[in-house]
Specification:
Chain lengths: ~140, ~500
């Protein structure tokens, strides 16, 4: 069942990509298919491989992988996207300290003080190392 | 060999100031390699403003130190936290990270340092002896040969990643699809950018690799913690290599050195293809191929040697022909030109002190690298002692810094999160991630060489099978694709024969 659904997802993704590839403009010089050729080939191959996987799924085991992350996993994915969203507006230091604190609360629950110390120390240390010493640009956000 | 020039080169390399720059370069390079997101080419590029006021030979010695220092340093994060800093270390992480999980991070780091040292030294000897002859042969490879070489390298990765070949090929095709995002360079046409300006430059390889490997690992790790499957890593045996591990590594190191040097000489193929070819060779030669991907030391020793051998090989076309063999040598080539020096055959004739001073500094730099890094193994090993509950969120933090430092773009961070989720799902559904990453790295060059080949042949695809070297690579690719099912059938027949007898 899982493999069948995976195969269907691959076929769907391949088909969407293939349609997008067919819409790529003609190349202004040389063969008009120039910029389109590789994406069309790859899209067609993806659909074909998805179909082979679907065919193979007839013999695949009924049991799928064990999904054990559940709510914590969904929370981490949410926090990671939120961290990405707030990285520039809040700035590296604040966003990283807050993001890490939230992540640590999921990974290492029940140790608020320790987690807060790790989050603040990491964001400060990494800011000095990357930004101050190595000159890597990191957003200042609310401090900017 | 111009013995006088070589001896003079040693005199240049041994000057106190040059020794100091070499040390600075190697230390900086190792640091840059260890930090996620800053690869060797970025590291060398960061040095260019500093190099302005320096003697050209000193500047190049320092840049070369950063190059091979970073090539070594990149393996440390691959092994310890499954976050390769550059493309050439992706293959190292397949077995290196598993070795760390199995309690042998010290052995993985040590063999990586030793392999890098041996391959680097062999590479410099070959560079000294064969540079001009090899460079003449390498230029005979045209776009069709490169295209077929890429196909072979990618199919080899897919074939050897274990599990379902169909899933590996889907991963490969998905990687090429990712590589097609952005403005197509030959025609200037936008592809799959959806009007988002930062996507016009394409999806950076580091976003993909850090997302799939590091963030993906952090998500899988959380699930393992929740299911009670992730134990604290227990260090097993001595921190250093055991005699048995050392014996198993000698062959892969020597083969990897040769494979790496030759791949490095081919412009563009470089360290990534070298690491793939070395891994492929070792898995094929192994009596226990099933151990690859689960912590086989040969899977670390070979590719790590190959990528350092390739760093030396890449110097051949740069110095003799003025063609960069890798991104980093492209930056170094720019630095040479900044000093008003024209790379190419005349450079050996007109600037022997500079060329041989640079080449000979690498012998000493490699010695400094190994002396510096071997004591560090004990320090780095302590990292795996940090509980996963604390380390995994920090891995996400490092991933954000590394990815943001590439372009300073928040879009890259969203993609990082997306690829992290994809990496987690691929693991759960048994899709190998290495083919996808490799395809992102090689996809653009593969497309470019395909189009150049077709332009040469006026869109006749027969060009790929009528040129002998290209045909050989394609046949090897077909062989690798067919091998797993042929071997499985052969084994089944043997078992049936055994059962009926």
């Amino acid at each position: 069942m899982v493999q069948r659904n995976t195969a269907l997802a691959v076929i769907a993704a391949g088909a969407v990509y293939l349609i997008g590839a067919l819409w790529i403009q003609d190349a202004p010089t040389g063969n008009p298919w120039g910029a389109r050729l590789m994406p069309v080939l790859v899209g067609a191959i993806l659909v074909l491989l998805g179909a082979v996987l679907l065919w193979q799924s007839r013999r695949a085991a009924a049991s799928g992988p064990v999904w054990g992350g559940g709510r914590p996993l969904a929370m981490v994915v949410g926090i990671v996207f939120l961290y990405a969203m707030l990285f520039e507006p809040l700035g590296y230091l604040v966003a990283t300290a807050a993001g890490l604190l939230a992540l640590l609360a999921v990974y290492n629950p029940g140790r608020l003080l320790f987690n807060a110390a790790v989050a603040v120390a990491f964001s400060g240390f990494s800011y000095v190392l990357f930004h101050t010493l190595l000159g890597v640009y990191l957003p200042k956000g609310i401090f900017g | 060999m111009p013995i006088d020039a070589i001896l003079q080169g040693f005199a240049v390399a041994l000057e106190p100031m040059n020794l100091l720059y070499m040390l600075i370069g190697v230390v900086l390079g190792t640091l840059i390699g260890v930090l996620p997101g800053i690869g060797p080419s970025t590291g060398v590029a960061l040095l260019i403003p500093l190099a302005y006021g320096m003697e050209p030979v000193s500047a190049l010695i320092m840049m070369a130190g950063v190059y091979y220092g970073a090539m070594y340093g990149g393996s440390t994060t691959s092994i310890l936290i499954n976050a390769p800093g550059e493309a050439a270390s992706v293959i190292t992480s397949l077995d290196g990270y598993q070795m760390a999980r199995n309690g042998r991070p010290g052995a993985a780091l040590a063999i990586s340092a030793i392999g890098s040292f041996i391959a680097g030294t062999i590479g410099i000897v070959l560079l000294t002896m064969l540079s001009e002859t090899i460079a003449e042969q390498a230029v005979k490879f045209g776009p069709p040969e490169y295209f077929s070489l890429m196909i072979f390298a990618l199919v080899a990765v897919a074939s050897l990643s274990g599990g379902s070949l169909v899933k590996a090929l889907i991963s490969l095709a998905a990687g090429i699809a990712v590589a097609t995002v952005g403005i197509e360079l030959q025609s200037g046409i936008d592809r799959f950018t959806f009007g988002i300006t930062p996507l016009e430059d394409g999806v950076d390889f580091l976003v993909v690799v850090v997302g799939l490997f590091a963030v993906g690992e952090a998500l899988s790790g959380l699930e393992e913690i929740a299911l009670g499957l992730r134990d604290r890593i227990q260090l097993k045996g001595p921190v250093w290599l055991t005699m048995a591990e050392w014996k198993r590594s000698i062959g892969p190191i020597l083969r990897g050195s040769g494979i790496g040097f030759l791949s490095g000489v081919l412009p563009g193929a470089g360290a990534t293809v070298a690491s793939i070819l070395s891994y492929t060779t070792e898995k094929r030669l192994s009596k226990e191929p099933e151990k690859f991907g689960k912590g086989a030391i040969e899977g670390v020793a070979g590719p790590e040697s190959a990528n350092n051998g390739a760093a030396m090989g890449a110097m051949v076309p740069m110095l003799t022909l003025g063609i960069p063999g890798s991104n980093t040598t492209a930056v170094m080539l720019g630095a040479l030109m900044m000093f008003g020096l024209q790379p190419g055959p005349l450079l050996f004739k007109n600037q022997p002190d500079l060329v041989w001073g640079l080449i000979n500094s690498m012998y000493l730099g490699n010695v400094i690298l190994v002396i510096l890094n071997i004591p560090m193994v004990r320090f780095f090993v302590k990292l795996v002692d940090i509980p996963a509950q604390v380390l995994l969120p920090l891995v996400i933090g490092f991933s954000f810094i590394g990815v943001y430092s590439i372009n300073g773009s928040a879009i890259d961070l969203y993609m990082l999160a997306g690829f992290g989720l994809l990496g987690y799902l691929m693991r759960k559904l048994d899709f190998p991630t290495a083919p996808l990453v490799m395809a992102v790295v090689l996809g653009n060059m593969m497309e470019e060489t395909m189009r150049q080949s077709l332009a040469i042949s006026q869109w006749n695809p027969a060009i790929f099978v009528t040129r002998p070297a290209s045909l050989i690579f394609l046949l090897m690719a077909v062989g690798f694709a067919a091998a797993p099912s042929l071997i499985a059938r052969w084994r089944q027949r043997q078992m049936e024969k055994g059962a009926s007898a």
